[in-house]
Design a protein that fits this description.
31 helices, mainly alpha, 739 residues, two-stranded antiparallel ribbon, membrane, transmembrane helix
């Protein structure tokens, strides 16, 4: 059966496109209107609003740019990215213009709803007038019944995560989450051994595995959990409550439109609490990052290398643990993936490519300052590498360029895609524009805090670079490598992590020395990858470099470009061993390089997910599977206790809280809380003390201290802190004391 492909609406003929668009828009407006008069249709408004906001503006921009025949994945990803840009810019414009016109609450439902509808109508007019000549045959998608057995199996994974987290929260049962992780591991093995999952299902596998892993942690608890996300929630509420974004609040995060504009927009139009925007909608968007990276890698190598590159990327625990509490970085990484998408596209018209790269670059800047700085500081050396290599191609003898594949012109490559004098998409004007936009935004918004932060980090690194290099006290990466693991099994996990770095190094070397036709890695992608590898090394040896973001986050960011080289390195090492060790293929899981790699990456995943530790009860680490240890995961009673504290005047006096509960209170007021001191006598008089459920049940508190560049923590008896204090609030899950 053949159906119109909804992911390529911009390729439909104009008449079909117009009527389909209007039908969807009328349905969306109708459902919203029914809700306003009291007739709420469950899920309908949320679903239609999400689709309307997330896809349609971007589709209209693509049509206005006359970009067609991009392919299903490319069109869908570009549509989402451009839609998010439109939403953020609409929020920024509304917040700037409406107060000047006398409307004090631009972030209110009525004003924002009408504004978005108006913006979409303008985009529709531009799309139809600029693309009036387009009359191509509308693309169709072939639907077969029954589908491949892999399709329902893969589609089941996110739903298993949703049901599993519900069972965990309500009944403390983790059986389904345990099963989910096993099925993800089985999928990795199946691809390596060419079983069950055909190559045509790899994109679906990539997206559903990523979304399932995100949901298996994001949906824990009915409240946000983690670290930075509590501050992000506080800033979102500081926009929603007054209906206005105060861009002068001096916090780095306050300058990020991915938080202060995008979340309020989804919350108001979809009629969702911002908590559920973070927990449901943002994972849906963030799971597109692996899908986009898969397509970037697949276009340069092969589907199987693309799959295992992304399996490696999502298997690393930062993807589904730390990133859950970094909403702004989730959106920024989507724009970085889209930038890589455009960067390797040598066929697209130069003007449209420049527009997309600058647009996605600006969107990255207003989404996350840390990722934007890393990307910016990688562009300059990457551009220099490209310029030097271009000169070497001309001046070096033929024997040398024959030896090093990355210097050799590929005569088999299509025109403009790497053969001959290829079009270079990483150009100096782009770097200068990106740098100028970053400087203008970070130096003016949120009191210039984002710009001051990077300047402070630079000064600190400069002051200690030569005196503390390789020192575990100053270089967080070195401290992690040299610290003794708590158990032999955790030591083995560290060896596996180090092995991935070795595979990446081997992959880069193999790419640089292989014939150009072997991998077809685009020069721009390779140049940035080389710089990102150096950033990894800097995270180990340069003082205060990795700790500015956190070593695991830094590694996760570099994997956006480096992940495929771990697979290439594994293939190169396998081929080398085959040549030197006879009988190597006799081992059942070593008959092909992909079989060996699938086993290795599944082992890597089992360590990172915490499944192995949970099975053998060896210091479990999983946020999802482990339910008894102290984590920044908070229940309804703890949240209610925090709300009561601040409603009753807690923001006027110091509030003492231990290291874990500190993050919960951060979501209400970041200015009055204090870490519990190791000595209770150091607590100020006329202050509050907040205890959560873990403090009450275990009768201890978490005391944190900074040791070099790593935070160390220990637990101590809670009794000393509550002596001579009055219990003024108690809901059995949270207690507030006062003295």
């Amino acid at each position: 059966m053949h159906l119109l492909n909804p992911f390529q609406m911009n390729d439909w003929d104009n008449k079909t496109f117009f009527w389909a668009f209007q039908a969807f828009q009328i349905a969306f407006i109708g459902v919203v209107s029914l809700g306003l008069v009291g007739y709420h249709i469950p899920i309908a408004r949320e679903a239609l609003a999400f689709l309307y906001l997330t896809f349609l503006p971007g589709v209209l921009v693509l049509k206005a740019l006359r970009l067609h025949n991009l392919g299903t994945i490319e069109t869908a990803l570009y549509s989402v990215g451009l839609s998010l840009v439109v939403l953020m810019l609409t929020g920024l414009a509304a917040n700037t213009v409406y107060p000047l016109l006398g409307y004090a609450r631009p972030f209110s439902f009525a004003i924002l709803f009408l504004t978005i509808i108006a913006v979409v109508q303008v985009l529709l007019y531009l799309a139809l007038t600029r693309d009036r000549e387009h009359a191509a045959v509308s693309p169709v998608v072939e639907v077969s019944f029954p589908p491949s057995p892999a399709v329902p199996f893969l589609a089941l994974l996110p739903f298993l995560a949703i049901i599993g987290t519900h069972m965990r929260d309500e009944y403390h049962m983790v059986t389904l989450l345990f099963l989910l992780l096993v099925l993800v591991a089985v999928t990795g093995i199946a691809v390596g051994f060419d079983r069950l999952v055909p190559a045509s299902a790899y994109p679906l596998a990539v997206y559903t595995i990523a979304l399932a892993l995100l949901y298996h942690t994001a949906l824990i608890s009915e409240y946000v959990w983690g670290y930075d996300i509590h501050h992000e929630l506080h800033l979102v509420n500081s926009v929603l409550i007054p209906g206005l974004w105060d861009m002068n609040i001096p916090y780095n995060t306050n300058g990020m439109l991915s938080v202060v504009a995008l979340v309020p927009t989804y919350s108001l139009i979809c009629d969702l609490d911002p908590i559920w925007v973070f927990k449901i909608i943002y994972p849906l968007l963030f799971a597109l990052v692996p899908l986009g990276l898969y397509r970037v890698i697949e276009k340069q190598t092969s589907p199987k290398i693309g799959f295992f590159s992304i399996f490696f990327f999502v298997a690393f625990f930062t993807f589904y643990n730390e990133m859950i509490s970094l909403a702004r970085q989730q959106i920024a990484e989507l724009f970085l993936a889209l930038t890589a998408f455009v960067m390797i596209d040598k066929v697209m018209d130069r003007g449209r490519r420049a527009f997309l790269m600058v647009t996605f670059g600006f969107a990255m800047i207003v989404s996350h300052y840390g990722l934007s700085y890393i990307y910016l500081f990688s562009l300059i050396p990457a551009w220099l590498l490209l310029v030097v290599f271009e000169r070497l191609q001309v001046r070096l003898p033929e024997k040398i360029t024959e030896r090093f594949g990355f210097l050799k012109i590929d005569p088999l490559a299509p025109a403009g895609t790497g053969g001959g004098r290829s079009v270079r998409t990483l150009a100096l004007p782009y770097i200068l524009i990106f740098a100028a936009l970053a400087y203008l935004w970070y130096s003016t918004v949120a009191g210039g805090m984002a710009f001051a932060t990077i300047a402070g980090i630079g000064d600190r690194i400069g002051d200690t670079l030569f005196s503390n290099s390789l020192s575990p006290k100053a270089a967080q990466g070195m401290q992690i490598l040299t610290t003794q693991s708590i158990t032999p099994l955790h030591s083995l996990a560290k060896v596996v992590h180090i092995a991935t770095q070795g595979l990446i190094a081997a992959g880069l070397l193999a790419t640089l020395t292989a014939k150009r036709g072997r991998w077809r890695i685009e020069p721009e992608y390779l140049a940035i990858s080389l710089v990102f590898f150096l950033i990894n090394v800097a995270g180990i040896i340069v003082p205060f470099f990795a700790s500015s973001l956190n070593t695991s986050r830094l590694y996760h960011i570099t994997l956006i470009f480096l992940a495929p080289f771990a697979v290439i390195g594994g293939i190169a090492l396998y081929e080398t061993l085959i040549g030197k060790i006879h009988g190597f293929k006799v081992v059942p899981f070593m008959r092909t390089a992909y079989q060996a790699l699938s086993v290795f990456f599944v082992v890597f995943f089992l360590f990172n997910s915490g499944l192995i530790y949970q099975v053998v009860n060896d210091s479990p680490t999983s946020m999802a599977l482990e339910t008894t240890e102290d984590k920044p995961v908070f229940n309804g009673k703890e949240v209610q206790g925090a709300k009561w504290l601040f409603q009753e005047g807690g923001s006027e006096r110091p509030i003492y809280v231990d290291g874990t509960r500190w993050w919960l209170l951060l979501g209400f007021d970041p200015d009055h809380q204090r870490y519990l001191p190791a000595n209770a006598s150091l607590m100020e008089p006329s202050s509050y003390l907040y205890f959560g459920t873990y403090n009450l049940v275990r009768e201890n508190v978490r005391i944190e201290a900074q040791k070099g560049t790593v935070t160390v923590a220990g637990y101590t008896d809670a009794v000393q802190y509550i002596r001579d204090r009055n219990r003024i609030y108690d809901n059995v899950g949270a207690v507030v004391y006062y003295r």
